[in-house]
Amino acid sequence: MRKLSCFILLISSLLLISACNQNKVTKIDLAEVTRSIFYAPQYVALEKGFFEEEGLEVDLQTTWGGDTTMTALLSDSADIALVGSETSIYVYAQDSRDYAVNFAQLTQTDGTFLVAKEADEDFNWEDLRDSNFLGQRVGGMPQMVGEYVLKQHDINPHEDLDLVQNIDFANIPGAFASGDYEYVQLFEPTASIFEANGQGHIIASFGEESGQVPYTVFMAKESFLDEEEETVKAFTRAIYKAQQWVQETDSLEIAKVVEPYFEDTDVEMLANAIERYKQQGSYATSPLLEEAAWENLKSIMDEAGELPGDAPYEDLVNTDYAEQIIEE
After folding, report:
1. How far is CA 187 from the centre of its chain?
2. Is residue 118 packed enough to be buried (19+ CB in 10 Å), middle (13-18) or exposed (0-12)?
3. Per the omega criterion (within 30 degrees of 0), is the bond before 142 cis?
4. Each residue's pLDDT tens digit, 27-53
5. pLDDT recorded at residue 19
C-alpha cells in the first residue's frame, strides 16, 4: 500500500511538473521600426492572442527609425526587431560577428504612397520634374524604392527634383504639412489622414510600381536564433496565424481589432488603408522570405548606390522556421 501511495505521489508530481512546463511563458522584447497600419498582421497577433497561444509574452516598443531599431537589437535591448531587411545587409557588411538574420517576412511590397499637396486626377510621373520633393532617409527602404521607381520612369531624383532628405523619419509628415513641398512619400494611415484633412492627395503607390521585395521583416541576432530555436519557432507560428487571419478577414473587422494601436484614427479610415494594402498584396501571406524577392531588394539597393557589398541569401535569411510552420 505504501509503495502504491509513493507511486501515485510520483505520478502526481510528474504531472504537476508537466503542467508547469506547458504553462511556461517566455518573454520577448520586440522592437518595431515605426507604428503603421502597414504592420497590421503584427498587431492582430498581439490582439487575437496568437502569441499567448504559443506561450509568449511579447512586449512591443516603437523605436522610430532603422538605425535606432537595429541598435536596440544589437545591444540586446530587443530580442526581435521588425525593420527593413536592408538594415541586416548594412550590419553584415561591417563584418559583425553576431549579425542580424531575417527569419519571418511581414510585408512584401513597399508601403508608401505618393502624396501631393494639390489634387491631380491626371497625374503622370513626368509631373514630378523640377518639383519640390520631400524625400525619406538616405539608405532607407522608402527612399531606395522611391528612387528605383522614379528611375523606371526616366526621372533621376538627384538631378530632376529639388530633393530634400534632411528631415528625421518621424518628422516628415509634419514637415510636409507645414512646408512648401509639393510631393512626399507617406505610409498609411498617415497618407489617408492627410487626404481626409485636405492636407494632401494620394496619387500613386510605390508598392504597386516596385514589385515584391522583403520590405519589413522580423529578424534576430544569429546567436538568439541558435539559442532560442523553440521560441523563434513559436513566434513565427503566431505571425503565420495572423497572416492567414488577415488574408481571410474583412478589412473593417481587421481595423476593429487593431484600432487600439491607432487611437487617434477613425476605424473606417483604418479599414480603407488596410484594404488598399490588401489589394496591392502588401501583406505577406506567409513568413517565408524567398530568394527572388531578396535579389530584387539587392537590385534596388544597388540601383540607389547603397548596396555595401555581397549579401548572401544563405547567410542573411533563415527559412527553416517558416518552412516548418507552413508544413504543419
Report:
1. 12
2. exposed
3. no
4. 999 999 999 999 999 999 999 999 999
5. 47
Spell out the domains of the chain, with CATH numbers in brackets: 27-109+213-327 (3.40.190.10), 112-210 (3.40.190.10)
* pLDDT recorded at residue 23: 67
Q: Which residues of the chain have pLDDT under 70?
A: 1-23
DSSP per-residue string spanning 208-259: HHH-----EEEEEEHHHHHH-HHHHHHHHHHHHHHHHHHHHS-HHHHHHHHG
pTM: 0.88
Beta bridge partners of 82: 32, 218
Residue 169's pLDDT is 85
Q: Which of 183, 173, 109 is nearest to 142 (CA)?
A: 109
Instruction: State residue 18's pLDDT score.
Output: 47
From CA 289, how far away is CA 161, in angstroms rounded? 34
Cα-atom radius of gyration of the chain, to the nearest Å?
22
Helices (H), the chain: 2-22, 40-47, 50-53, 66-74, 86-93, 141-152, 172-178, 190-196, 206-210, 222-227, 229-248, 251-258, 267-279, 291-303, 313-316, 320-327
